[in-house]
Amino acid sequence: MCTSFVYRKKNIIVAMNFDNNGMPFEVSTKDPKVFSVLVDGGRGKMPSFGVNKEGTFINHLMVDSNGTGSYRRAGRKVTHTTKLVNDILYEIITPNELNEYLNNMEVVNVPDYSVHNMISDKDGNVWIVEPGRKNIFSEFNESPYYVMTNFSLCDYKDKKEVAGDGLDRYEIVNDMLDKDHYLSVSDAFKVLQAVRQNGEWKTALSMVYSHIDKTVYYCYNGNFEEILTYQFS
After folding, report:
1. Which SUPFAM superfamilies would you find in this protein's record (predicted)?
2. What gap in Å lies between CA 148 and CA 170, rounded to an integer?
């Protein structure tokens, strides 16, 4: 269970808590143009979330299934969430192509999982992809920020009702971002700190990407006093 948000006033800031239940993971910068976190969900380590040199971010967070969107083999008209993460990070699909791509491609889950994706670009445009439901496009000037946790944003938008995990974290993030006139990197970490988790799902990695700085700031295990950096050259 994770929390992510895109702040899109002046500087574009993307922030995420990766909450983990013990799955092996590692930070990868093998390709210097991509900062990614690889997670082994039982089928080997695959890109789970990250950001590339162009400022394009993508993740996938757990969400309750609505009974559709289950795994099917990828093909000409079908792709799955893990492949989408890889294709976005490595610019096989660019933000300029994304609306057309999503209009013509069905995104499904990988086996045994139900997730949704948040994608954002250097301008603060946001796409939400929810297999078995639909997609949302939120233009950069629609709102000052966009938040995603672990309930369906499509269901929330359509019904104005929330079902599933993460409502408490969603509300905390919204309340904190409402009070900020200009969000700094340190402010973003304060928001992540306010929604870090312990227990079965523990905050294992927290990251903040600043587009002005072209830098990813991150820390492990809720240790917000020891921030590491990765700067795109």
Report:
1. N-terminal nucleophile aminohydrolases (Ntn hydrolases) (SSF56235)
2. 7
Cα separation, 132 vs 2, in Å, equals: 20
pTM of the entire predicted model: 0.94
Side-by-side strand order, sheet with 228-231: 145-148, 3-9, 11-20, 202-210, 215-220, 228-231
Domains of the chain and any CATH numbers: 2-231 (3.60.60.10)
6 bridge partner residues: 14, 146
* Rounded Cα distance, 221 and 201, in Å: 11
pLDDT at 52: 98
**Tokens linked to 69:** 């969107």
pLDDT digit string (tens) for 98-114? 999 999 999 999 888 89
Q: In whole angstroms, what is the distance from residue 159 CA to residue 144 CA?
A: 22
Q: How confident is the model at residue 1 (pLDDT cuts 50, 70, 90)?
A: confident
Would you give the end-to-end CA distance of the chain in angstroms?
32
The residues, any chain, with a CB within 8 Å of residue 34's CB and separated by 6 or more, are 28, 50, 51, 52, 53, 89, 90
Task: Evaluate whether 5 touches 148 at the Cβ level (below 8 Å).
Answer: yes
22 Cβ contact partners less than 8 Å away, ≥ 6 residues apart: none
Indicate the helix (H) or strand (E) that contains 107: strand 106-108
Taking CA atoms, 3 is separated from 21, 50, 102, 131, in Å, by 14, 14, 23, 19
What is the distance between the alpha carbons of residues 67 and 25, in angstroms, rounded to a whole number? 28
Residue 24 is inside which H or E element, if any? Answer: none
